Amino acid sequence: MSATIRVNPIACTGHGMCAELLPELIRLDPWGYPVLSSSVVPGPLADHARRAVHACPALALLLTEASGKHR
Amino acid sequence: MTTLALAPHRAPVPEAKLPRLLAGLGDRPSSLRWHELQHGPMPTLRRADRLIDVVEASGLTGRGGAGFPAGRKMRSVAAGPGAKVLIANGAEGEPASLKDKVLLSRLPNLVLDGMTLAAEAVGAREAFLCVHRTEGGLLEGLERVVQERLAAGLDPVPIRVTGIPGRYVSSEQSSIVQYLNGGPGKPTFAPPRPHERGVNGNPTLVHNVETLAHMALIARHGARWFRGAGSPAAPGSMLVTVGGAVRWPGVYEIEMGTSLGQLVMLAGGPAEPLQALLVGGYFGCWLPVQAAWPVPMTHASLKGAGAALGAGIVIALPASACPLAETARVVRYLAEETAGQCGPCVFGLPALADALGDLAYSGGQDGGVGRVAALLPLIERRGACRHPDGATQLVRSVLRAFPGEVRWHERTGSCDGVRRPPLLPLPRDEERDQDFT
Amino acid sequence: MSVSLHGPGLWYATRATGLVTLLLLTASVLLGILTAGRFSTRRWPRFLSQGLHRNISLLVLVFLALHVGTTVADTYTSIPLTAAFIPFASSYKTAWLGLGAVALDMLLALVATSLLKARIGYRGWRRVHWMAYACWPVALAHGLGIGTDRNATWVFALTVACAAAVLAAGTWRLAAVARLEAR
Q: Is residue B395 one of the residues assigned to a domain?
């Protein structure tokens, strides 16, 4: 089981930092909000995902590690 | 919104199985005394939680739209820790649906019986009956009935009639839970789900009022009686609202599995030649009338036909109307009724309404059907609740059901149907609240 | 190791670290405004403003610690350590020093809440972080009022430049907010 990532759409304000830090999985729609191409985070991207989660100003990005731990 | 007449007592019911919920339905609210004469007094089960077994055995599914097995829901709430809470959802935010209003205004004791039985079965110590606070008359009437029952010593768990904000998204179950917790009547981001942690953090059972009304009768007559109507896979009866171009629009009680065509005929048949049926309300699907006619009204069959049963709303679209224009109007309404919480919905739905309106009225000069189709994946499943998904589902179904219509609009700009007076009912401004608190 | 506890060494160190702290704090405020204003160009992504803001804020703490340390260690003015945290606890230039303590306290609150952001949630964090707009001018006033380098024109010019930069950025931010509201 690998890590999964999702957006809390209510908390999200469309800041867009996540798309800068994890462009492999996240791009922005025409209104500035993140579109996830997949909810599964492949191993090599795990560090980048963690950085993106930590960077989100609104704490809207949620990561569930493979171990089950929530960020 | 037009007031729909209640037709069941006009149309002769061929079988003795029905009516059940709507038995003895009159024009005036029924009294407690009448209710007890009609259905018998409040049943006492050997054990309060025996109701859960009986409801499970009956196969009753939720009548609020999702169709989740009612007994299973009760069992999972009953298994939770602490004092439980019961919410009877009678808000019926769907503009085209009238069944819950009929039950609550004419046959409230069925719903209240069901509430008391369900509350005792899961160990609830609080019970809320929720309707939109813009329905002032309904609130007063319900309060009177609750007081009457209290005086008769009927409801050990006091039932609190509660007015929730008159907004479309406020009748969603997480919205009601948030409102009862002191917040705005807006949907929340799961987890946790209400049945795990709801009002005041307690496991909360949320049931549509019709589901509870069925429980009131199942508790009296048993699971086998309930299964005496419908089919093994889809037992019992359900309430449906029929509208649009039929001779007798109104609320009907049908056996599960009645076909859409039979239902239209029960409602007096088409008032003019039809082209399609909208099944499931404004989060539902358009079905071309020929394909729709024989489809049985069960969750499984409608899903197989690419639609969904929802809360039992069927609207007949005449050939003289334009499905694109009607849908564009509804999407515009849904765009105005967002909770304003999630960007893709707040920005996406107005863009969708613009694009669809452009296609319907100007032949899609601004991007045509391609623009509409491109917006759909940017909107669906990107909100915290099902509001944007419902809108995109409706739009997808109109594009799927009317490809010829779309081509016609793109080639010629519009059609005669757009000039017809609007068919799908939308609430007047007075019926819509300004805020969510 | 014996260190001279009075004399020009510590005195210069206090003033220098104080000035650097102010410059870094100004930079942090500017970067914070850029982050909140969602500023970005093709070569300056948003996470850069935020990352620099966070790291420079931590660097502010380092230089602030040095500034406080050298001030307290200097026996010439006998300022107790408590005066760094409790406003108006020192008899030396009580008011201006007190402002410094106020700014320091605010800065500690800002950094602590930011480090614990996940624990207190976005809305709680945000309410405290507004204090940054109070912290910076108080720190600036402390620097100007304490008066030790008022006569050095280059110091004065630097201070004015900091003020101008923050005012300009603040105006830009207000205009951006007005644009967002109109949307």
A: yes
